[in-house]
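Entry 14. Structure prediction run on the chain below.
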Amino acid sequence: MYEGGERKPGTDLIAHWRKHDREAQSLRAHLLETSQLAERFAAKVGLSEVGRMLGMLHDLGKASNKYQDYLRTKEGLISPDEDCYSQARRGEIDHSTAGAQLVYRKLANRGQEGKFLAQFSALVLASHHSGLIDCLTPDGKNNFQERMDKSDKDTRFTEAIWKLPDISQQLDDILSHPIEHRFCKRIYEELKETVDSKETLAFKRGLLARFLLSCLLDADRSNTADFEAPENELMRNYGKRHPWTVLIERLERKYSEFGCALAQMDTASHSYEVNQARAQVARACRDSAARPRGIYRLTVPTGGGKTLASLRFALHHAETHKMDRIFYVVPYITIIDQNADKVRNILELPGEREKVVLEHHSNLTPQEEARRHNLLAENWDSPVIFTTQVQFLESLFGGGTRDARRMHQLANAIIILDEVQTVPIRMTHMFNTAMRFLVHDCGATVLLCTATQPPFGETGNDFRSLFIPPENHIIQNEHSVFKGLKRVEVHDERKPGGWTWKEIADLIEHALREKGSVLAVMNTRASTRALYEAIKNRKLATTYHLSTNMCPAHRLDILAKIIAKLEAKEPLICISTPLIEAGIDIDFGAVIRALAGLDSIAQSAGRCNRHGMREGLGSVWVVNPLNENLDRLPDIKIGREKAQTVLDDFRDDAGRFSGDRIGLQAIAKYYSHYFKVNEKEMDYPVSRNSGIGRDDDLFNLLAANKLAVNAYSNAQQVAPDILLRQSFRSAMKEFQVIGSITRGAVVPYLYGKSLIVELCAAPELEKQHGLLREAQRYSVNLFEHQFDKLLKVGAIQEVQPDSGVYHLNEQYYSEDFGWDNEQISDMTLYIV
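Output returned:
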């Protein structure tokens, strides 16, 4: 008799209980329905049978009496007084390993090919509640094999097979064909490119394992969510959406309007030359769309119309190649705020029920990986997705399951990476290899957009570089386009010792008199605030402050006020962090930029005389603030040093740079210096003080994992007999896109106050998708030490117990600066 009392095989096995009506989802139905979804998702990389197998086995361990008793006890269907009552909690019952052991035992004895497929499949199944586990731990322990050898007492493998014999039979039906041969052809022949080394091939195999995990995670979570809330199915696209031809027609109508406006302009004006250059960019994007899938680059000066031009390429490319979706990936939330609205206004008609554009950019949803919380995660099922670089890179390399769930949606998609120069230097080789995997192995097209293209093809390691053939440069005459879009003169105003805040304020005053409006961009929030306070009291003009301490809605409101005043030609001053310099369509008469990397200076310059409507060229002054401390911002500090080298060379011989401090030659020279000094940083190094416990790098840990392999071999006197040797989980714990983990909190800015009240009172918060989505624009992201400090003093509170959603109290949010460490007003309590 099995623990908890004997039942007939397969009778009344439960996967989940529905909360609102206590209806049960049968385990058999959940496994089969999940297998159908996973099969469809995995078909995008030619591995449909593997996906079907994963979905069929993922919750096999739930058939055990112990798990079934847990579910029934939880719902009050078993009395604690009955003999079969189980004290176990869900997290203590391993229901992932039984399916992994079944497929491993079925395949591992079918030769080397069978063993390879066995490990991939078993790894994914064992990882579907934790994220990919370590195959070898950093210290050389064979964690994967230990999981496969886990005792029957702990996994209840034998019991699960006895309870669901038909599932085992269906697995046998799948394995009656030699699917391992097809799989090994994929991982040995088809994954490999001519530029791959053993290390990059191992890295790509790890990405394939994560892709298969993504297929299973999304299938599992979606099926569960649709059972718990059947109305979810009506909200999902599941492939049903507007044809690309309809969206193309809407965008082309907009371009027709642009053409009519251009025809009516004075051909002698500078603004006509600027708009003609933009039209040339848009035509080049349209003409390139019919080319094969691949990696493309769009190099256009800031203000050259990249957003809509790249969308034009993507829509036509998607229709030509019958692709699934378009991703627009940006470095900052601020860019999403403006650009998503611009695209939405073109592609979505008023009153239209079906939405085209999805914004996904908040980590407001809870951090825990419990099923209840996973149901809140977006799975990127929309035709056009605007998301951040953080979300995109986390989907490829982040820990846990929340972000990994989305990865499979990147297959057969167009991925536009806007302002791609902002990809952190330490991720260069991981990024390059992942982009090659998505294009070569997942049928994606990647478009790298920026005015300042980093030399991803010249990283010092040919195997980890990203080569873009010349014919895939969408703009073939880049020098001509840059000349046509030249709208500013950059003045190098560095001086020994640096500028005080008073001196920079004096320069702002001078620039305001000369140009009518001024944007000053500093490198840090502290220096931005210091300069704002230095200039505001002079009462020269309406003065605004912008930083990421403000929630997106707050920044949008400030930007709207700035744009209105600029259009009305009213004098104004804006003091901002670098958030304003990438993708924001705004046009100042003058810009003052704190010395930083030449790419950042060029981006700030793009906010000056943006449309060529002002008389003559706009003015950009580069200054070196005396009191700006960059010790905690090493990337910006190195960029500043290398920019100084190029600016010094320009002073000696401006002719070498065609007389342009931010032109193509200057940017190329800057990046050659910047990449050279950072060659050893491009594999994402980690130190012995990290969780890894030794000096290593994430590329190695996610590829050949040589140090762990050596540790195992030295201890066992034999190499580990597994193909995947990566320390997945250990590496992903160390992975951080922005250098530190952040936590989201809803802030009491205007409508945010009402949202907080609603969140505090909402029944079944996990189902309030619309409410949480609205809250994204009224939330800020805090580094963990900031979050913990505010939590400790009661400035941050949970909206509901155990919800994982937090809000900031009103006295810690300022109309001028956003959130603050110090109390700025009286306490407001949200009592419901």
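Residues 34 and 223 are 6 Å apart (CA to CA).
Filed with the rest of this week's runs.
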